[in-house]
Amino acid sequence: MRKLLSMVLVLALLAVSMTALADKTKEEYAADAVVYASDLRTDYSNTTVILSTNDVHGAIEGYACIPVLRKWFQDRGADVLVVDCGDFVRGTPYVNISKGATAIEMMNAAGYDYVTLGNHEFDFGYVQIMENLKNAEFKAISSNIILDETGESILPGTAVYTSPSGMTIGFFGLGTPETATKVNPGLIREISFTTFDALYANAQQDVDTLRAQNVDLVIGLVHLGVDVESALNGYRSSDVFAKVNGIDFILDGHSHTVMTSGENGEPIMSTGTAFANIGVLVISNETKAIENNFLVSTKYLDKDPEVLDKARSIIDEVDAQYGNVFATSEVRLNGEKAPGNRTEETNLGDLVTDAMVWSVVKEGGIEQVEPNAVVGITNGGGIRATIEPGEISMNTINTVLPFGNTVAVAYVTGYELLEALEASTFCTPDPIGGYPQTSGITWHLDTTVPYEQGDVYTLEGKESSYFAPAAIRRVTITAINGEPFDPSATYAVVTNNFCTAGGDTYNVFYNASYSFDTGIPMDEALVNYITEALGGTITAEAYGEPRGNATQTR
After folding, report:
1. DSSP letter assigned to residue 518
2. H helix runs in 36-137, sequence order
3. What pLDDT score was predicted for residue 461?
4. Which architecture characterizes domain 43-314 according to CATH?
């Protein structure tokens, strides 16, 4: 209680724009990642403070918190930098519709200095992000994204900042090699990513380059994360810290993790997602050492009026176009990551895949297979938001399905369908973006059986981030649309163009004997299914709970 009162008094003394403190318990403060009094002080003179964000995903009103927190530290003597660790593009209609251009506008308004690129920066293609960055007033760095034509990095790999006191900070940037399959591979054919041990060598070269310039500190701006899904390849920020010498601190993104240090105490910080928190790294200009790092919850920060007005003008313009209500839901449709669409069957996954299948077969079926041989699969990582009970607008649908993917069809054998399910659940029950939300397939996953890793998947000669199964050990299919499963039969899988391009773990669909893109946008398929097939109402009877076709042993 004394610590709680101390925090309240100190925050009041410092005139921090944080409110609603007194009615919260110590545990609630910790859960919100709110700083304690001991993390704040009255004097930050002769320090450099780095404010960090990651995985903003279109939460553009949050940018208005940056100038407020920056000024707070500046008023107490600090030199302040603002950095981002990727995935500022894509997530809400407020950045999706402009193909990321409005994200750049907001980051300029907030005053960012350095950023690295995440996988979602490439959702609209390599050409689009490079065009967007022409308007950036900040510097983007990332050394492991290679333009195939030249063999050179598409961006500078490092940057050096010199504080007014003369202290130097060297930044290096890394993007996740998983981008190769977490983005539609067809949109990034021009580029490659350094992978496996080459990733560490790449980072070591960057650090050595900075150390050769006699910088005082080396800080990584990386979009790697700490997901179990990334552990198999060694692509986590903790792997880079363990393998690369000379790193003082890593600011991280990708896994949406809220952390001020790694699992084993590594100097790694990540803020979560969608401006839940802002990271604070305090550096002494005198000792050239990191003094402290912590997170500030944006719940307790005011917003800069000018930046907020800019965000709201974008929001109002988009809402005017996409805010009209066209349907209602009686139930909450689970759009969470975990437990949710990356770990298990969900009612929203059922709805989306049902809509995809319906959009293709409603006009008379699919050639080459019988109607009962048509199934649906979409990657759970492509479902990005929950639909709450009540009104549904196009904004709602665009937030749930923000990637602009189209409905596609791949013809595969039963054996290949098993491989697709096995590969896309290799780390389940831990979350994986490729987790299959399905329609028409009754299947079981035994997560207690180890995944038997085979050769790395390749796409057009480039290494994927994932490995084929050496054997089908974890997955069994018992029925297809209520009829016995035949491993040798041909099935038409209604999926999306991201998966047929080999996205996530779906190399099997990329190599299918035949596939085609219907050109039907996934969001359009879902809207039409809700309005036409469901009569404008998602009922509890139809989608109140997952239908139970995908079961697991854990």
Report:
1. E
2. 65-75, 93-96, 101-110, 126-133
3. 84
4. 4-Layer Sandwich (3.60)
DSSP class per residue in 494-513: EEEHHHHTT-TT-HHHHT-S
pLDDT in tens, 308-345: 999 999 999 999 988 999 999 999 999 999 999 999 99
Helix or strand holding residue 221 (H, E): strand 217-223
Lowest-confidence region among 266-275, 296-305, 371-380: 296-305
Q: Which helix (H) or strand (E) holds 494?
A: strand 490-496
Structure tokens of 182? Answer: 């977490």
Domain boundaries, the chain: 1-41, 43-314, 324-553
pLDDT at residue 24, as a whole number: 40
Cβ(293)–Cβ(64) below 8 Å:
no
Selection from 340, 344, 343, 546 nearest residue 432 by Cα: 343
pTM: 0.82
- The token pair that represents 432 in the structure block: 């994986």
> What CATH number should be reported for the domain whose range is 324-553?
3.90.780.10
- In angstroms, the CA 89 to CA 122 distance is 8
Closest CA to 164 of 78, 82, 71, 73: 78
Q: Using only C-alpha atoms, what is the Rg of the chain?
A: 24
For helices 305-322 and 101-110, what crossing angle results, to 10°? 160
